[in-house]
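hey m, so remember when u said the tokens were messed up on ur end? i reran from scratch. heres the input so u can diff it against urs
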Amino acid sequence: MGATDGVHLRMLWYGESRKVSLAAAQLTENALSGWDRTVADRRRQRFGPINTWGDMKYLLRLRYVPDHYHRDLQKYFRMLSQGTRTVDEYFEEFEKLMNALELEESDEALMAQFIDRLQERIQRKVERAQYNGLHELLHLAVQVEQQIRRKASLSNRSRNNTPWNASNNRAMDKSKAVESDHRFKNKSNEAPKTSRPKLGKFPSTNQSRSRYITCFKCQGRGHMARECLNQRVMILTPSGDYE
């Protein structure tokens, strides 16, 4: 089938029998053997020869195109979307299926389907624009696609041109913040320590009090009479002297 379609334009000015001969000469492998078998069967059944291009196309389609082919092709055409393809690649597939199905739909219906299956960013911008005809819609969608790609390229370029020092400083600041936060958590988990004065640095309360105690036995300071180490007995006379 592909071979016969390829020579279709070259056969427009030929006669019907000449078209059949040229098309049969383009067939290869299974298609050629199938065609020879069809011609032999018709001759054996005493049918007339195939002299028109229309009869040849009908017999080839009957032999190689299943009944559900047109239905599957129609389903694939309705579900066709741009996906990861470019707008040109999407339109090429769209137009090929449209010609294969020989659709008789209006331009408005075809344009609505084409827009509905574009990528979302392209679709939003195309819907707000004005266009007349399917090919004008195609050119508009291609322009929008190129604008989106240029913006994405500029954004990536500016992102890659960020100074190294700035990014390095941000990384250092972040590491310092993590380190200080870690230290703060360690300090908060530690038990609070009570400050105690070192021995000998500050006089105890008992020592400061004993400084003002007077012994009645020896009249010394710093201890009481029961703690006095002096065994001598001193008598205080009425005149205030000691004996």
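this time it looks ok to me. The mean pLDDT is 77. if urs says something different then somethings off w ur setup not the seq
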